[in-house]
């Protein structure tokens, strides 16, 4: 996390104080998201088990679908909170630089 934040901080010309605050935000988000990631892995395994079962339990499939949607919402909420917190640390110009960098990364991933 620290390495990533240092990289971003260099890209946007962040001050040491901003870098420290961004690191704190990222660490907190990572700590909160770790159990969500673990639960997501468990739910994927549950889905595969339901699919591979000799008979399809539609009720269990629906319960898992609902749980996965709740999980996705919780994950999305926490990531959005971290991004908004980080945005408040940066100046408008720094946010513009970060957005440009993210757009370049997005281009590589698509």
Brief sketch in words of this structure:
By secondary structure, this protein is mostly helical. The protein is 89% helix and 0% strand.
Question: Mind explaining what this structure looks like?
Answer:
The chain is mostly helical. The chain contains four helices and no strands. The chain has helices at 2-12, 16-52, 58-89, 92-109. Helix 1 packs across helix 2 (16-52) and helix 2 packs antiparallel against helix 3. The longest helix has 37 residues, at 16-52. It is elongated, with a radius of gyration of 19 Å. The protein starts with a helix and ends with a helix. 9% of the residues are buried.
Give the arrangement of secondary structure elements.
Layout: H1 2-12, H2 16-52, H3 58-89, H4 92-109
Helix pairs in contact: 1-2, 2-3
Keywords for this entry:
single chain, 110 residues, mainly alpha, elongated
Q: Quote the beta fraction.
A: under 5%
Give the overall shape, derived from the CA principal axes: elongated
Helix/strand structural class = mainly alpha
User: Biggest sheet: strands, sense, closure?
Assistant: none
Q: Rg, please?
A: 19 Å
């Amino acid at each position: 996390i620290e390495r990533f934040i240092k990289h971003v901080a260099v890209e946007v010309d962040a001050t040491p104080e901003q870098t420290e605050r961004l690191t704190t935000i990222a660490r907190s988000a990572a700590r909160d998201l770790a159990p969500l990631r673990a639960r997501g892995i468990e739910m994927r395994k549950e889905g595969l088990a339901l699919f591979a079962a000799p008979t399809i339990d539609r009720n269990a499939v629906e319960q898992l679908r609902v749980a996965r949607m709740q999980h996705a919402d919780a994950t999305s909420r926490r990531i959005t909170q971290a991004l908004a917190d980080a945005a408040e640390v940066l100046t408008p110009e720094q946010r513009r630089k970060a957005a440009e960098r993210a757009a370049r990364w997005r281009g590589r991933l698509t």
